[in-house]
Amino acid sequence: MNKVVVGLSGGVDSSTAAAILHHQGYEVVGLTLWLMKGKGQCCSEGMVDAAYICEQLGVPHHVVDSRDLFQENIVDYLVAGYSAGVTPLPCSQCNKAVKFGPMLGYARQELGIDKIATGHYARVSYDEATGRYELRRAVDRSKDQSYFLYDLPQALLAGCMFPLGEIPKTETRRIAAEYNLKTAEKPESQDLCLVEAHGSMQEFLEQYILQQKGDIVDLEGNVLGQHDGVHRYTIGQRRGIGVAAAEPLYVVALDPGRNQVIVGNRASATQPDCWVQRVNWASIAPPSAPIRAEVQIRYRTRPVPVTVLPENGGDRVKLVFEQPQFGVTPGQAAVWYDGDRVLGGGVIEKAE
Questions:
Q1: C or N terminus of the chain, fewer CB within 10 Å?
Q2: Active site residue 274
């Protein structure tokens, strides 16, 4: 019998993924990662619900204490990033370093199982011509999470299954109800578990970063107002700046060294290109020549045409947008696609 370890967060998506595989005849083992230190209600409630789902399905349930790993790779990573004036994207970092890698390692070393599955909306295929696994968008584009999975290398893609990748979210709810899963009507969780646990990203960060007043300045260095901490701002932000002006102002740069927030008009927050570092080529080998693709520079932005210029063996690339893009934000992920296939992605280093 085929065996698979299913990562269970206690939400409807992962629960339904486990139920689908169980009813398809897989020998399912549930695995929940304990990520949060302190209050972390999303983790404590999630573990209880995940255990209940496993009881419903009649399958084993394992809990792995991953709190130190999460602290080092996500909490410390976020604090360091915001302190340096960038806006990190924790989810892709978490998927690779905290979730998928350790989960597959645990499955193989402790349970002798070579496959893991999650409730992510994405797909994995195999190209026999190239001998590579390919990460693809989910059929339900409105729920597609391939953007957050771009950093999974071939070794992890080879061991992954995404049972929800072929179905719409409405079907997920229907299946959960059909199987009478406890989580069938459970509300959607927020994108960021830390926000869910702490109320807001600002509340989370201010446990670690001291509020330090500084100047809000324009591009010529004129002082327009005061801020309570550079970490409270992100590139492209318009609301909540706290400065009155004749035209709308946007955050165009952050300078933690001078403790300044730099603002300007929308045009000054628009860039023709950017550099991307820590690149992972998800579905193709690193190219040696420029390629054309479509890129997303944030999860909710529409993909736009781009030329990808690789350097240093593809570990770093320059993205040249067909049309200048607003709010290109250091620390966020840029992910480029060919149709529904994720070609690669990385962390935005700087815009030019």
A1: N
A2: no
